[in-house]
Amino acid sequence: MGTSEELRRITMTPAARRALAAAGRLFYDRGIHAVGVDLIAAEAGVTKKTLYDRFGSKEQIVVEYLADRDERWRAFLAERLDAAQPAPRARIRAVFDASRAWMSDNGSKGCSMVNAHAEISDPAHPAHAVITGQKQWMLDLFTRLARGVEGLGPGAADRLGRTLMLLHEGALVAHGLKVFPDPVAHARDEAEALLAEVTER
Fold it and tell me: Do 59 and 68 form a contact (C-beta atoms < 8 A)?
């Protein structure tokens, strides 16, 4: 997260971890505003007082939920990038393939950050920095990968990075909406076609 130095995190106890796991399931399945602290406590098998003792507020639970999901995604993606061939095109493909695998296992309703942003658009909310930081990180990743594509100048590479991000993010939204089958694979194929086009110029 680009603002991690400003982001307050808590130390996780076993009870806090149970509460976070319950909150994560509920927030993702039902929406953040629709889930109250009472329901999280009941699902986690802890008291409401324990929740407030550990997290301080529902806002902090939301921060921990999104930050935890972001950290798990980055670790998941890092494994796949480490296993990919070093060529930028192979690594770009690996990002889309990682997203496809992640969505299959963790994303039946689409991107948790996009979904959260639909409910949390106020920059003053402490979770807002987690959401925007994760998307900025993805843009930076695509831009770095695009800058490694042979024959592209800095301006063209930056434009390619933004286009790759748009393909990726659009696919995540389409996955959640279930508009058509396997949108992440479709976006990956379009990204590969685009890379072939720009390297042939």
Answer: no
* pLDDT score at 199: 76
Query: In the predicted model, what is the mean pLDDT of residues 173-192?
Result: 96
DSSP codes, 63-82: HHHHHHHHHHHHHHHHHHHH
Phi, psi of 155, deg, nearest 5: -65, -45
Could you write out the DSSP letters of every residue in 79-118? HHHHHS-SSHHHHHHHHHHHHHHHHHHH-TT--HHHHHHH
- State the Rg of the chain over Cα: 19
* Cα–Cα dist 187/159, whole Å: 17
Query: Tokens 């992440």 label which residue?
Result: 184
Nearest to 149 by CA among 158, 138, 139: 158
Q: What is the pTM of this model?
A: 0.91
3-class secondary-structure state, position 35: coil
**Size of the chain, expressed as the number of residues it contains:** 201
